[in-house]
Fold each of these.
Amino acid sequence: MKLKMALFAIMMSIVTVLTGCEQLTVLDPKGPQAERLASDIMLTMLMMAGIVIVVFVMLVIMLVKYRASKQPADYEPPHIEGNPWVEGILVGIPVLIVAFLSIVSVQSNYIVESAPQGYEDKEPLVVYASSSNWKWHFSYPEEDIETVNYLYIPTDRPLEFRLYSHGPITSFWIPQLGGQKYAMNAHVTKLHLAADVEGEYMGRNANFSGEGFAENQFDVTAMSQKEFDEWVEEVKETAEPINEAKFEELLEPGHLGRMTFTGTHLEFSPAPEHHHEGDKYEEEHNHSDEHHSASRKESSDRKHMNYNE
């Protein structure tokens, strides 16, 4: 009786906790990229649940069918050879599961890395998303505006985010629109997203980058193209221009609220789109070669002048 009451209490506790949980944002997609990722997650969860159920059923069968019996002390079980069919099934099924999930993962990677399905023929909105400790800067070069810690995007239009960091490596992530991608200091990575539904979403840095990482979040608002255009016009009429001194101040470590500017920091602090560590080495190497060549030429000229004299 006590055991039954304990099991009942445990089950009620689990039910109570689960009913208070909100829906996972990754399983509530609002765009085609997130839809693909959510379907892959559900497929994986269902496959894992099926495997667990089969294993537990087999465990119960084995425990019941081959439970200990009252045999004499000198009883010796009969010698049994391995069954190739059983061994083949035990090895073959996991191989098939891994192969299937690998194929699904590779296909999904190609899909989410390219332009969102259904938006291939539309011009994307390009947004430079750069991070600093511990804030996000969003530059709209076409609209010539910039925001801090919040992002406005139009629905039914592809989005092309160009990601980089002004400090440590971070990870740009809007769970309801797609997967995460790294933003690095000396390189620009691209992330293609789209929002099908108007609403407010949460975005954040998904990579630990210091003590302020927990609050390194930003708000995302998806709206119609008309509302987005009206917002752009309002920003141009009311916001202050950003300059180099102000931007250097924003890069100082700390947390900030929402901020809006006309112009972008790309004018005086461009993104490292064509700059890599290898390029930097090559530039320094070329500069060194040019310096040595100039020195050799100057030395040769001096010898030639001395000879003529």
Note: DSSP finds six helices and twelve strands in the chain.
Amino acid sequence: MAVDSTYFRPRRLGHANLWVQDLARSERFYNQVCGLTVEFTEPSLVASFLGTGHTPHDLGMIETTGGKARYGRDGLLQIPEGIGINPGLNHIAWELENEAELVAAFKQIKHDRIPFDQTVDHQVAHSVYMVDPDGNYVEFYCDTVKDWRRVLHGPLNLISGAWDPENGEPFTDGRYDTNPAIRTVDNASVHPQRVTHVVIETAALPVMLNFYTTVGGMRPVWSAVDNSITCLRGSHPAYRFHLALCSAASPAYHHVSFELANEAALRDALGRLDANGIAPEKIVDHPSKRSFFLLDPDGLRSEFYVRRDPAFVDLSREPVELRPYLI
């Protein structure tokens, strides 16, 4: 495989997308407990999309398929047979600056014969889907409509169709919202501000690091002294990092992280969770951050945190099983 250092160049993490066993049950949890607004749903895909307003969704979820295929607009095979059988990570999505950068990267991976899965028009975004070395599904996309709520709201059917990146002249302006209106769910236990990063465990950290720095176009910003953890970021200056890769015995999705406004908001959230009889999986009180972790109805993990120290703290002396929680 030829390697060019200038493939995709993400700005930031756009969203994480999960497979869930019961869509209605999971939607209630992420809306009423975690405080994410239901932006739109796609009944034909058995999917729901929730967020804080920074992007069309911070978190997407699709009900498990039983192994049956599901189709998008114009007959697009969106979910092949045998995919989405169990709850877990569906994909991680990385937002690019504009369509010109997305198309240029796509043409380069084709030229260098780097495998990709499909290209999709989501009406408010164009996307290229790939698989990373651990088998995680990865989306690189650009927004195509700045006022995405005008297009996506309420229940919608057959949102996604085929997209040909080589047909037409790609636009060069950034169509993401630079001044988003942040939404909160007033009666929810937690009031997150934005999704910021994902944490992935891997038994092949050097291989994964090579993928995310070359094909994935992210820049390492910190590594543990023993090289058991590496954090990477895109180009957006307002985020500390967007992806953490942690050495582990086997590959696994660990969690997605949401930032809270301040420590008072975190204390209030913990108080509301306790009043509602909801116990966090873990509470972290560390020099670098304070956070708590919630498990959804399928046991999938989300973090809600406040950063205390902008500097990275070495975690190589911490127990291996705790390190993904402390990043």
Note: Helices lie at 23-33, 99-111, 205-213, 263-275, 323-326.
Amino acid sequence: MHLTWLDNNSWLIEMADQRILLDPWLTGSLVFNNLPWLIKGDHQQPRPIPEAIDLLLLSQGLEDHAHPETLKALDHNLPVVASPNGAKVAIGLGYGQVTALAHGESYTLHERLQIQAMPGSPIGPLLVENGYLLKDLETGIQLYYEPHGHHAAALKAHAPVDVVIAPVVDLAIPLLGAIVKGRSSAAAVAEWLQPKVFLPSAAGGDVAFSGLLVAVLNTQGSPEELRQTLAQQQSQTKLLTPRPGERLDLQPLLAADG
């Protein structure tokens, strides 16, 4: 297995001989609801679109997961698996092979990789987006991803999970509360799933943000804080902090005992 963090929530997952592009924001600015004065993100380094993608996987329909400009630039013949909200975005942009997964439903890619939707982040009072559990059907290796730190207790039934990608910091807006709850949930999901490898997501590495919200956005927690917590728990989980664009070979860690 190889993982490449493409910054923010975007990942290239190479697993079961498949190449999965997850929640890509690779080109253009990140703007929510066409309000750049409120918050706007820009990559400080170019983010080329990976080649030979087998599947596009979207956990949410929000712009930082289903980024319109990036989706417009990708091959619209790619098969897409998405949350129902993400599927609406992909269909609206002209993608023809779109599978919407409700919680508990699964999709199998080329008879090699199973993708199961898990309850993820609440977006308002009525919508809960997706987390995903990916499983290599030949080796049994599993990877779990959820970008906002909302982890369903139903995950415990799937333990152990080899790799977890999830946030490790809290991001909060005064009066609105936390929009990412990584600090308060990362240690818990690591205890539930006992992964061999944990990789932080959601915090931009080479991204510059501007706008009114930037000044009031409150960040709490850090990878080092989680690393210390895991050590105190005598956890065998290895916390990795890759650089954007760095391709990690996880096979030696996944093959190691303990």
Note: The two ends are 18 Å apart (CA to CA).
